[in-house]
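Support request from a user on the community tier.

User writes: "When I paste my structure tokens into the form, the page sometimes reloads and wipes my input. The last time it worked, I copied everything first. Here is what I submitted, just in case something in the input itself triggers the reload:"
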């Protein structure tokens, strides 16, 4: 027959077992917390490196964009240099004529003929007519370069911790300008901007979301299509729609697009982080990103967030994410 174990011993055994289980649970929790912290920091590094990769790719496009105006501005300057040399010769001939006139006109006819021959030789009418056009075109080219470089600088610039008021329509224009090399062969861009009040946001991060939506839209278009960008206000919120006439998505794809590393693109073309980042960035603005898409019918993404920006708690979260 079994000897009865005293109740106090049973209770003590049970207490020990519980303490042991609690210790193990605590240890497992601590391991989990540190694994989570490591994952979060790895994720934020990845998001940051993806931003750099994205800007790197776009910078290559921008370099290509800048090349064209720089090419014609320098060619114009060469032509202008030749014109200036011709004009100096012409001015010298005129001066000789003037001096000859002062010398009582003995060689005046010969000098005048000289001036005329030279005017023909250098095609003076053409030179005079072209100078203005070349200068105007060169100026336009240089302003284009200045604008492209400025827009890229704004995008590459990492936000400070401060939320600031921005003109969202202008921010979209900058994103279009930075992504232009990816867009121009694929789509006509149609803008339907509403008059918007200044909107509180982290401009670099919202710009990053817009860039990814624009590049995704262009990549979804096979030959040539349309990308339509609309903005508007809904109560206390601002919204931006980016629509394309591209391939669209099946419901099974739509379900997964915000997952990190989900991509249907070839290796090297997409990392699958763009929309995941967009989702995080919109959440950190107390906003959201929604999608409507049908295979063969195109896709619309909508960004929406409060005009007054995220609440205090989220601002802190967002700053932590940025580090
Ligand atoms: N406008 C769109 N039309 C059709 N499919 C889209 C569109 N935008 C996104 N997708 C789908 O969602 C997937 C995920 O997009 P996401 O931007 O996250 O990554 P990615 O574009 O593949 O790569 P990354 O942006 O990191 O370069 C894409 O691979 C594509 O299948
Ligand atoms: Mg993308």
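"...and here is what came back when it finally went through:"
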């Amino acid at each position: 027959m079994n000897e009865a174990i005293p109740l106090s011993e049973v209770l003590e055994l049970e207490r020990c077992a519980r303490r042991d289980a609690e210790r193990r649970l605590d240890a497992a929790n601590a391991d989990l917390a540190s694994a989570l912290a490591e994952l979060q920091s790895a994720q934020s590094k990845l998001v940051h490196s993806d931003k750099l990769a994205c800007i790197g790719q776009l910078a290559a496009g921008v370099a290509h964009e800048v090349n064209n105006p720089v090419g014609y501005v320098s060619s114009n300057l060469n032509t202008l240099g030749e014109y200036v040399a011709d004009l100096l010769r012409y001015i010298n001939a005129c001066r000789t004529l003037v001096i000859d006139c002062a010398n009582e006109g003995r060689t005046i006819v010969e000098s005048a003929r000289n001036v005329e021959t030279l005017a023909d030789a250098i095609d003076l009418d053409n030179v005079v007519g072209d100078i203005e056009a070349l200068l105007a075109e060169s100026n336009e080219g240089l302003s284009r370069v200045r604008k492209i470089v400025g827009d890229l600088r704004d995008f590459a610039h990492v936000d400070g911790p401060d939320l600031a008021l921005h003109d969202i329509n202008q921010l979209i224009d900058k994103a279009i300008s930075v992504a232009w090399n990816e867009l121009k062969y694929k789509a006509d861009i149609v803008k339907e901007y509403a008059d918007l009040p200044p909107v509180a946001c982290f401009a670099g991060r919202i710009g990053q979301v817009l860039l990814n939506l624009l590049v995704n839209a262009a990549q979804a278009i096979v030959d040539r299509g349309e990308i339509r960008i609309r903005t508007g206000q809904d109560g206390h919120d601002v919204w931006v729609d980016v629509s394309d006439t591209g391939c669209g998505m099946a419901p099974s794809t739509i379900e997964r697009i915000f997952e990190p590393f989900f991509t249907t693109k070839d290796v090297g073309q997409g990392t699958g982080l763009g929309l995941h980042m967009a989702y995080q960035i919109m959440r950190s603005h107390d906003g959201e990103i929604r999608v409507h898409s049908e295979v063969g019918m195109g896709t619309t993404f909508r960004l929406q967030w409060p005009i007054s920006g995220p609440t205090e708690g989220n601002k802190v979260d967002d700053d932590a994410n940025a580090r």
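Agent notes: The reload is a front-end session timeout and is unrelated to the input. Strands lie at 164-166, 187-192, 199-201, 225-234, 237-244, 288-294, 298-306. Residues 163-322 form a domain with the Heat Shock Protein 90 fold (CATH 3.30.565.10). Escalated to web team.
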